[in-house]
Design goal:
It is a single chain. The protein is mainly α. It folds into 2 domains: about 60 residues, Arc Repressor Mutant, subunit A, CATH 1.10.10; about 140 residues, GntR ligand-binding domain-like (Four Helix Bundle (Hemerythrin (Met), subunit A), Up-down Bundle), CATH 1.20.120.530. It is about 75% helix and about 5% strand. It has a two-stranded antiparallel ribbon. Strand 1 and strand 2 form a beta hairpin. Helix 1 crosses helix 3, helix 5 packs antiparallel against helix 6 and helix 6 packs antiparallel against helix 7. The protein starts with a helix and ends with a helix. GO terms for molecular function: DNA binding; DNA-binding transcription factor activity. Keywords: DNA-binding, Transcription, Transcription regulation. It comes from Achromobacter spanius. InterPro entries: GntR_C, TF_FadR/GntR_C, Tscrpt_reg_HTH_GntR, WH-like_DNA-bd_sf, WH_DNA-bd_sf.
Length: about 220
């Protein structure tokens, strides 16, 4: 491996680490990111961090403004609508055509169990993170690395939407049970009904998120 290849691998790793922190809700929309803090916490050089910032800016997760630096992107209503349109296309199809004994089923079960445990503790951010893991596992049913990569980016954008609305209990609490119901259909081998339930789930989620976004803008 050349020095250039090693540097690129490190940049990719740092990009993924920051993207994962976005998915986990550790950064809020509009939050400015400190180079000094992140270089220390990630144990990387400023040059590597800046390259990771450029990657994430191209993905639409960060923004850059001269003299102001890098900040977490703030989602728009148009981006929310587009996120849900893509989710319906990817997730419902992956679920409807899934192999009955796919190992991603175990990750779906773990995500549901984690969400229910977090809800019991009223850890709503934890419920949100488990929800992300559940939907990532649904996409993994399709056995496509390209789809997995695309969907990981989509989840990061979605978490920014949830962070912007700042009401994790309202946004996440009802869906732990709905995920459980979808999983029960999967475990029973009824992937068609599971996909139909997911389609209804996404339609309800989109309505709630858009209404919450509209109220936030109005205020």
């Amino acid at each position: 491996m050349t020095t250039s290849d090693a540097h690129q691998t490190l940049t990719d790793k740092v990009t993924e680490q920051i993207r994962r922190r976005l998915i986990n809700g550790e950064f809020m929309p509009g939050q400015r990111l400190s180079e000094a803090t992140l270089t220390q916490s990630l144990d990387v050089s400023r040059n590597t961090l800046r390259e990771a910032f450029r990657n994430l800016t191209k993905e639409g997760l960060l923004t850059y403004a001269p003299n102001r630096g890098v900040a977490v992107a703030v989602p728009s209503m148009a981006s929310i609508i587009d996120i849900y349109r893509v989710r319906r296309m990817i997730e419902c199809q992956a679920l409807a055509q899934a192999y009955p004994h796919h190992p991603a089923r175990q990750r779906m079960r773990q995500a549901v169990d984690d969400a229910l445990a977090c809800r019991e503790r009223q850890d709503w951010a934890g419920v949100g993170t488990a929800n992300m893991a559940f939907h990532m596992a649904i996409v993994e049913l399709a056995d496509s690395e390209r789809l997995n990569g695309m969907f990981a980016l989509l989840l990061a954008e979605l978490r920014l939407v949830f962070g912007l609305l700042q009401d994790p209990e309202f946004l996440h609490a009802p869906y732990a049970d709905m995920n459980e119901q979808i999983l029960q259909r999967v475990e029973a081998g009824d992937f068609g009904k599971a996909a139909d339930a997911l389609k209804d789930y996404l339609a309800q989620s989109e309505r709630i998120v858009l209404a919450s976004y509209a109220r936030r803008v109005a205020n």
